[in-house]
Amino acid sequence: MIASLGMYDPRWLRGANDLLWQAIADRLPANIAAPAALTRDRPLDAIWSAPDLLLAQTCGYPLMTRLDAAVVATPVYDAPGSEDGWHRSALIVRADDRAQSLADLSGRRIAMNARDSNTGMNLPRGLIAPFAQDGRFFDEVIETGAHARSLCAVIARHADCAAIDAVTLALWRDRYRGIDRRIRVLAWTEPTPGLPLITAANQSAEVIAPLREALADVMIDPALHKARAALRLTGIVVIDRTAYGAVTAVEQRAIASGYPQLA
Fold it and tell me: CA-CA distance, 186 to 182, in Å (whole number)?
């Protein structure tokens, strides 16, 4: 089996994720073939759709639009814009940008991490939809491949704004203490359920239940306090897959208003 915690896994947090995974694997019964190490050498899409997937974290948008997977749990983070397993995106601009409202971004350039990202594409689409005219609002949309790259694109003036998920923004603020001198949050999107931990759709309850128990236990283990703090993890909640319909509801409202894509 394979496992991945690749959604919040920059190089400076890999040690914390490795410790967390080892603790999870150690708590699983012997009949579950937990891998000794996290998989980092495959594209996330290939991991999410692997028939031998034991555990991985994904985005709510691909979960609801193309993945056949079972939801195990949703992590809870101590991050502004994130609460009880739900999260928002922060629409950021440079600290010295003249924009004071969403309307002021009309005709500007936005950076997004991916076309299938809830926090980078779908939630800002819902936020901007009321301001769009004839299906357009921005002059240009730049696809960067990662939230961190979108953030850097704004700082470097390659883009004027970007929607950054709440946890990524908090982790980057932890790492780079001067970042708030470079950017500011112009607006927050509405909340949707956070990035779920999934397993292959064919996994039985005899696998999912021990996974949930192991996850719950590592969230309260004092020996893992430092690793959890580095990742801003405070616990898990079990959010039914149907609640992730909030993600596609944002999309449907944007489409209904004549703004089918971030543009």
Answer: 13
Return the amino acid letter for 85: G
Which residues is 198 bridged to in the sheet?
A: 56, 71
Per-residue pLDDT reduced to its tens digit, 50-70: 999 999 999 999 999 999 999
Cα gap 74→59, rounded to integer Å: 11
Instruction: Return the structure tokens found at 127.
Output: 């936020």
Helix (H) or strand (E) holding 109: strand 109-112
- Pairing status of strand 2-4 against strand 53-57: parallel
Q: Give CA angle at 19 (13, 25), nearest 5°.
A: 135
Q: What is the pTM of this model?
A: 0.94
Cα–Cα–Cα angle for 261, 262, 263, rounded to 5 degrees? 100
Instruction: Give the separation between CA 175 and CA 169, rounded to whole angstroms.
Output: 10
User: Nearest CA to 168 among 87, 72, 57, 259?
Assistant: 87
3-class SS string, 17-51:
HHHHHHHHHHHCCCCCCCCCCCCCCCCHHHHHCCC
pLDDT tens-digit profile of 223-238?
999 999 999 999 999 9
Pairwise CA distance, residues 18 & 35, whole Å: 12
CB atoms within 10 A of CB 91: 22
All domains of the chain in start order, with CATH: 2-79+193-248 (3.40.190.10), 86-191 (3.40.190.10)
